[in-house]
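Dear Dr. L.,

I hope this message finds you well. Following up on our conversation about the binding site, I have prepared a predicted three-dimensional model of the protein together with adenosine-5'-diphosphate. For your records, I am including the exact sequence and ligand specification that went into the calculation, followed by the structure tokens. Please feel free to forward this to your student if that is useful.
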Amino acid sequence: PKDTVDVVVVGSGGAGFSASVSAHDHGAKVILIEKEPVIGGNAKLAAGGMNAAWTDQQKAKGIEDSLELMTKDTMKGGRNINDPALVDVLVSHSKGSVDWMTAMGADLSDVGRMGGASVNRTHRPTGGAGVGAHVVQVLYDNAVKRDIDMRMNTRGIEILKDDSGNVKGLLVKGMYKGYYWIKADAVILATGGFAKNNERVSKLDPKLKGFVSTNQPGATGDGIDVAGNAGAAMKDLEYIQAHPTLSVKGGVMVTEAVRGNGAILVNREGKRFVNEITTRDKAAAAILQQTGKSAYLIFDDSVRKSLKKIDKYIGLGVAPTADTLVKLGKLENIDGKALKETVARYNTFVTSGKDADFERPNLPRAINEGNYYAIEVTPGVHHTMGGVMIDSKAEVMNAKQQVIPGLYGAGEVTGGVHGANRLGGNAISDIITFGRLAGEQAAAYSKKK
Ligand code: ADP
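The resulting structure of the complex is given below.
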């Protein structure tokens, strides 16, 4: 019957799609459900890139990287509370996941840098197209090619188990069909995080009460409850990431790559106050300490030309421009004279290759060309690090650290991969790698049954 499959995947973000395609390619019959009317989840909004080490793309650009270095950066970024076994999976599969996506038609040949990385390892499409939309599109096209049964407006409600505790299906609610049961040997939860649910967020971290969020409306965390009701243990739920640079004017998230490519952060007094490419938690905390709890990204036409995405911000009207820094200051109520001095001093650091004030490790270009731009930014809730506890086969575990047979988890709904703080570029890597793995494992499990 049409509602009986080997594997049902819940959520149509990068993790859910990777899981679906991978389970299919390992011989499983798959249904993918999504509660929203559209596919893609938050994955579709990801602007940064996909971190991976030791890739052909890096080699082609002469970038020296290693699995050890990516592990070290990821652990350090996560304040060393990441589950080392999961980080090992993330890192050791990262090249394979870039190759897997590339073989399916993705372009991840441009390699840039995001906060917390010691070398360039953020893989993204050439020309600066949004990585998330691209990756989701490629995965969607591949799911269509495989004729995978995808059901929108269909919410996963409850995991059903047999008397010995093995998963036997999922109760779902379709917008038109109402409640029905999908019979399956395995369920893969790929329901994403809960950053859009400020009630849940602020209960776990009161400092974030009333914060805006970058997330799509479906990021409410009901997958956490679905898993919890099935006996899943949770890990690190209290670690919630605020993205440091959400545009105050437009609510749009301004990618870290703007800083990575050369923008500086200044306060209303026209002064720098932080190493711009420090980890997200530190950058967010520093911005909240400034006058008005916001700061300005300052850059020029050379930075603008280096990153296509910036034209989108300009198009949205969130990046006012002027031909001198003093005029720019006037437009935005920043101390223009101080701003001019700050930029001149910063440019000497670019020349000498050493930031004497904040030890910023990358100084790609001076800010002195053509028009100048200012984007006012403030932190918003961006990513939830914690979630369902999984092992290194993406199997969901209960409080006794035993596997719940037939239940798998991948992506932001899980906890442990990113520890206390996720590095930019590690989410796409996480969802592709753990999605693939969950699909493969669930297909093998179903075959054995
Ligand atoms: P990831 O990056 O981990 O893949 P995303 O946020 O991109 O996560 O995708 C998760 C998707 O799961 C979103 O599209 C969200 O709407 C969907 N989702 C969340 N909860 C449910 C649910 N209970 N049933 C079906 N879909 C869900």
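In brief: The chain has a mean pLDDT of 95.

With kind regards,
A. P.
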